[in-house]
Amino acid sequence: MSAVCEVQPSTTVTAVEALEVNVAMAKQDNDFRELLSELTLEEKVRLLSGESFTAAAGVKRLNIPPIKVADSTSGVRPSQHDSDMTTACFPNTTCLASTWDVDALEDLGEKLAKQAKMKSAQVVLGPNINMHRDPRGGRNFEAFSEDPLLAGHLAGAVVRGVQRHGVGSCPKHFVCNDSEYMRHYYDVAQSVDGRPLREIYLAAWSHLLRVSDPVSIMMAYNMVDGTYCSAQNDLIERILRKSWGYKGLVMSDWFGTRSTVEAVKAGLDLEMPFPVHRGPKLINAIKSGELTEAEIDERVMKHLELRNRTRESHADADAEEYSEIDEATNQTARKLAEGGIILLKNENATLPLDAGASTRLAVIGEFARDAVVTGGGSASCNPQYRIPPVEALKDVLSDPSRVSFSAGVKTRRVIPLAPASLLQTADGHAGVEIKYINDSSPDSPILVERREKPSVWMMGEFPKGLTVPGSRIELKTNFTCPSTGTHTLAVRRSGAFQLYVSGKEILTGSQPDVTTEQFIFNHILLESRVQMDMQEGAVYEIKLVVQSRDKMTIGEPTPYAASLCFEEFYDEEQAVIEATEAARTADTSIVFAGRDGQYESEGYDLGEIALPANQVALVRAVAAVSKRTILVLHCGNPIDVSAVVDDVDAIICAHFPGQEGSRALAAILTGKVNPSGRTATTWWKTLKDAPSFGDFPAQKDEEGNLTLKYQEGLQVGYRHPNKDRVQWPFGYGLSYTTFEYSDLKVSVSGAGSAATLDCSVTLINSGSRAGHEVVQVFVTPAEETSVWRPEQELRMFTKVFLSPGESKTVSLKDVLRVACSYWDETEKQWRMEEGSYGVCVGGLHSTFSVSEGELWDGL
């Protein structure tokens, strides 16, 4: 979670004041650290908390600027909460990981820095390097991989790119926020000195810090080994700072600070988004002797150092040299989508399509018309534009008239807002009339307003004079029905409600039992529905009354919301029939299916990974009558395709590919670009095949505590020994050309901590198309090892472009002990054992010897 809400505490600096501070900072050449002695205790404490949902506090008296932060790596959202503001929208992080392209992600980082400056933000909240432990993880789409080395190196490339021009990067969430269900409360029952954390979950962070130096790191909400991460001294001080030598600032996630004294002593520098456990509580702790001012100074120094490192970003914050839309940014977005899209299956020479042929194409599925660009939550963004995939495909075909479209079945988790075009107030204005009424004065609203959208969405900040609890919202409108049928009306709300249609109460509901976080993200928990027979052209008077919640939320903003939703009836059987008729007359059918941001989002996990039943029925019906069938899947997590995998000829994983994703997909489908994406996570045949099945999400123990157990230990993803359960393995992806590997050479050079593992291999493009190949180096453990180790582990990788017939010698190397070591739980250090190790590259195998074992710590 991060900058997602509208509430602003009374201490918020105005935009004009922030500009004045930024201008003053631009003129200031001194080291901000020198101002420590000039700060009062109150000013020091002020610096240790946020001042709003999108800014850490500053000190105007000394020209210490606030630090504006913005989500995220798929697209930098505005530093002010404005859902209508657009931004360049890049592919989701799993798509980025599927490129396996360090250079491309470093370029992405530079474009993100540019977008951040356009929005006057100094720190980008990302990338997210939590692990893909389970295919139901709600935020997996905005994280990289199940493999820590791949995640760490790619995240490090983003950080380097972002910070090259003075903008800061804040990777998240340290550590083990691999599930969204009750993430504020669950305890990961693992020691920070156990092998699973050290070799998988913490390892991603150590690889990140080997290749980059982020200005900040965000802590996770959850507990690890019984202590909240925001107060986990072992994580912050012992591991992150002392063992790994990290010098940057450590911040909480939003409302992720759970203590005053403990969090400061553990090394948490910044509480976001504003003082809950700090402010006056922190001053009192200092006065009572629970904390010393020296301990506060240590935390404050991190803030001053952060201002030094983001000085250039502040100086450029109001520059006008950056256009909102530019082709260089578009090319980066398109290149990333092209590089991440994965060809999973291709039989009967189905792909690529011949763009110049006179073949007939049936394009089926609502996602072909309504482009899926991003997942949900704080990693989502409002793209600058959306290109329907069916239109992008027509643009690259010689005869677009031969393309037919059928919408197919609907994929919905929540009912959409009632369209403003169907709504009118009693006095003739478009939209709805909204009254805010205190229970103490039911006949005298404190405010009456009109809105185009039938929705009120408040978080802690309410109209002046509104009593919370003790009030209600009344939303009124005249609804003109677009067609005759049994339509769906729905209400999403924060409190008890009544829905009236033409004076008759048709739906009621109690106050939903949800957390603030669930209110923000998991809207299905707020929704109640009713079906109603309605006539085309008829006007229905609708009144929605929503009560305030019965008590204020402690430590977080209190939600207050009312939304009127509507979905027109459609005949699902008829939709499938129409799709099959389109497929029957085509040479090739392309079916778009999978998920969008309603399903994969921050704030909740998936309940299953199988395709929805209506999508399965659609795909099977189309495939039964089509000469060739291509299935395009939108998803961040893997999908169980067992119900349809044998029915279709080709399958493409298109991810959530950003605003240029449709053009990228069209280029892949027609062979203009050779597919080069490789899976960054194992695709299991079914959910039950996943190693974490049965231990996800968190469950209550006998004492009622929410516990998340990592029962699979190290056997995450491809490290699991049972390969029969895999649909598509880690690192998998097909191509339109062929690559051959030869002449693998492996050696060890140097000695001691400077020793490196050196690998080289000859790669030739033996096919007829130019394209990229991902070279993956896996190391197998010593022949004799004292502990169980995975059969092989990724230790190096690179991406290479070759023209037809071209060959290259690819050389890679890394620190020997990083490539060979495991975590010794007894010694609490890394151990490299002597012996013979193996290397696997592109189906070739070699060995090398380690003559002397060693123990080592740190990075």
From TrEMBL:
<comment type="pathway">
    <text>Glycan metabolism; cellulose degradation.</text>
</comment>
<dbReference type="InterPro" id="IPR036881">
    <property type="entry name" value="Glyco_hydro_3_C_sf"/>
</dbReference>
<dbReference type="InterPro" id="IPR026891">
    <property type="entry name" value="Fn3-like"/>
</dbReference>
<feature type="domain" description="PA14">
    <location>
        <begin position="427"/>
        <end position="580"/>
    </location>
</feature>
<dbReference type="InterPro" id="IPR001764">
    <property type="entry name" value="Glyco_hydro_3_N"/>
</dbReference>
<keyword id="KW-0325">Glycoprotein</keyword>
<protein>
    <recommendedName>
        <fullName>beta-glucosidase</fullName>
        <ecNumber>3.2.1.21</ecNumber>
    </recommendedName>
</protein>
<dbReference type="InterPro" id="IPR013783">
    <property type="entry name" value="Ig-like_fold"/>
</dbReference>
<keyword id="KW-0136">Cellulose degradation</keyword>
<keyword id="KW-0326">Glycosidase</keyword>
<dbReference type="Pfam" id="PF14310">
    <property type="entry name" value="Fn3-like"/>
</dbReference>
<dbReference type="InterPro" id="IPR017853">
    <property type="entry name" value="GH"/>
</dbReference>
<keyword id="KW-0119">Carbohydrate metabolism</keyword>
<keyword id="KW-0624">Polysaccharide degradation</keyword>
<dbReference type="InterPro" id="IPR036962">
    <property type="entry name" value="Glyco_hydro_3_N_sf"/>
</dbReference>
<dbReference type="InterPro" id="IPR050288">
    <property type="entry name" value="Cellulose_deg_GH3"/>
</dbReference>
<dbReference type="Pfam" id="PF00933">
    <property type="entry name" value="Glyco_hydro_3"/>
</dbReference>
<dbReference type="GO" id="GO:0016787">
    <property type="term" value="F:hydrolase activity"/>
</dbReference>
<keyword id="KW-0378">Hydrolase</keyword>
<dbReference type="Pfam" id="PF01915">
    <property type="entry name" value="Glyco_hydro_3_C"/>
</dbReference>
<dbReference type="InterPro" id="IPR002772">
    <property type="entry name" value="Glyco_hydro_3_C"/>
</dbReference>
<comment type="similarity">
    <text>Belongs to the glycosyl hydrolase 3 family.</text>
</comment>
<dbReference type="InterPro" id="IPR037524">
    <property type="entry name" value="PA14/GLEYA"/>
</dbReference>
